[in-house]
Amino acid sequence: MFEKSLHIANGQLRRLLADASRRGQAIRRWYRESGLNEAEMRGLRLLSEWLSPEQLAQYHARNYFDVTGCHSGKRYRIRHGTATNIYELDSAGRPRVGWCFIPKNHLVAGDVMLAQKIALETDESAALRVAKKFPPTWLAQ
Amino acid sequence: MATQIVMDHNGDTRHNFDANDAEALLKAEQRFKELTGAGFTAASRTASGEPIVRRTFDPTAEETLFFPRLVGG
């Protein structure tokens, strides 16, 4: 009885691992076909590990995700990119002003967006003190 | 196994260490001090997944992420 249960569990585990492996391969293939190199893929993997489930779903669907500033409670939209990619939203969800702050060292897009997210969610005031404003020309909702 | 993740031009570099090993822990603390001293921000996640900035080394943190100083773009 025990051996039979063990055999069934073993089979289920093998199928689960095979499925996980297939999904992993599919994601890697998708990234490669998107023209991303290993560093860019690693950056996006790290970003996806740190985004909340809502932010991750939004990013996959729309190529941006929203964060809430820890001090003001304002909503910011971080668009995929490495510069001039943050928009403060008004109460209707429209871009009100653009903010640009980036890590000092050259980093891939996933890392830049993750650093921006953490900065706004943990020390919004400090991030905005170094940021430069720009006119919000991007209108995606 | 605990991990320190340092963002760099390769995406990131991961340093895994055994938090129960005193020597490894000392090395991790030294890395923390060097990176934060060089302007990196250290962050980890709460149990609910929200990011939190670490000003001092936390020997119990399973994962600590380091990113370079932020500047106006």
Q: Can you walk through the features of this model?
A:
The complex is a heterodimer of chains A (141) and B (73). Chain A is built from 4 helices and 5 strands; from the N terminus they run αααββββαβ. Chain A is α+β, with helices and mostly antiparallel strands and 141 residues long. Chain A has a domain at 52-134. Chain A has a 5-stranded antiparallel beta sheet with strand order 1-2-3-4-5. The termini of chain A are far apart. The model of chain A has no long low-confidence stretch (mean pLDDT 88). Chain B is α+β, with helices and mostly antiparallel strands. Chain B has one domain (2-67): Ubiquitin-like (UB roll), CATH 3.10.20. Chain B has a 5-stranded mixed beta sheet, covered by helices on one side. Chain B is globular and about 40 Å long. The termini of chain B are far apart. The chains are: A alpha+beta (141), B alpha+beta (73). Chain A binds chain B through residues 38-43, 45-46, 50, 52, 83-84, 100-108, 110-111, 114-119, 121-123, 126-127, 130-132, and chain B through 5, 7-12, 39, 41, 43, 45, 49-53, 65, 67-73. β4 (95-103) of chain A pairs antiparallel with β6 of chain B.
What order do the helices and strands come in, and which of them pair?
The complex is a heterodimer of chains A (141) and B (73).
Chain A: H1 2-33, H2 38-50, H3 53-62, E1 64-68, E2 75-79, E3 86-89, E4 95-103, H4 109-130, E5 132-134
Antiparallel strand pairs in A: 1-2, 2-3, 3-4, 4-5
Chain B: E1 2-8, E2 11-17, H1 22-37, E3 41-45, E4 51-54, E5 63-67, E6 70-72
Parallel strand pairs in B: 1-5
Antiparallel strand pairs in B: 1-2, 3-4, 3-5
